[in-house]
Amino acid sequence: QKEVEQDPGPLSVPEGAIVSLNCTYSNSAFQYFMWYRQYSRKGPELLMYTYSSGNKEDGRFTAQVDKSSKYISLFIRDSQPSDSATYLCAMIMDSNYQLIWGAGTKLIIKP
Amino acid sequence: EAGVVQSPRYKIIEKKQPVAFWCNPISGHNTLYWYRQNLGQGPELLIRYENEEAVDDSQLPKDRFSAERLKGVDSTLKIQPAELGDSAVYLCASSLGHFEGNIQYFGAGTRLSVL
User: Fold this and answer.
1) How far from the centroid of its chain's Cα atoms is residue B10's Cα?
2) pLDDT digits over A60-75, tens only?
3) Could you identify which of A34, A43, B3, B72 might form a hypothetical disulfide with B51, taking C-beta atoms 3.0 to 4.6 angstroms apart as the criterion?
4) Which chain A residues contact residue B105 at CB under 8 A?
5) Chain A residues with a Cβ under 8 Å from any Cβ in chain B
């Protein structure tokens, strides 16, 4: 079993829909939770990060962490075709440098 | 502020040939990482530098891969000789260190095709 599980998709939704992307993890020592967006032929771009549990909002994006369930989510409101990309979750222990990655979910927003 | 810069963006070589990738991290970032990313997967760490010291190279295939970061800024990753299975995207990332959870910022990557 992988430390971080993420459905690879693809997830296809119409423009304007609310998108929910999720990861589950097994190691309770993870403290920082990141979401990266990766466009085709580009490197991962940090979208948001959250420390420990709770929510964080940035524009149309909301990240949620539920440490009791070992489950993290990224919500995208009013989705746009430009949001079409692969979204990777990653997490890190407080005392460690090593990012543990999900495999990424490919998201397609249809105009 | 400039992000992590990598070159070249693309490289096509024949197997058994050498290849080198270059990375310039974000100014002030002491920690530098090289990753390899295969299609449909998350990045896989190859090596991590703290300034000029390679502090974790446990995942680097040392028979054919080498890396250096001579002055604690720019870094190069070399493969010699390349094999077909080395085709992947090679990513460089940098971070401030053990601050804010060591948030890592990535370059655009070098896409390597070995024929």
Assistant:
1) 14
2) 999 999 999 999 999 9
3) B72
4) 46
5) 8, 31-32, 34, 36, 41-46, 49, 51, 88, 90, 92, 94-99, 101-104
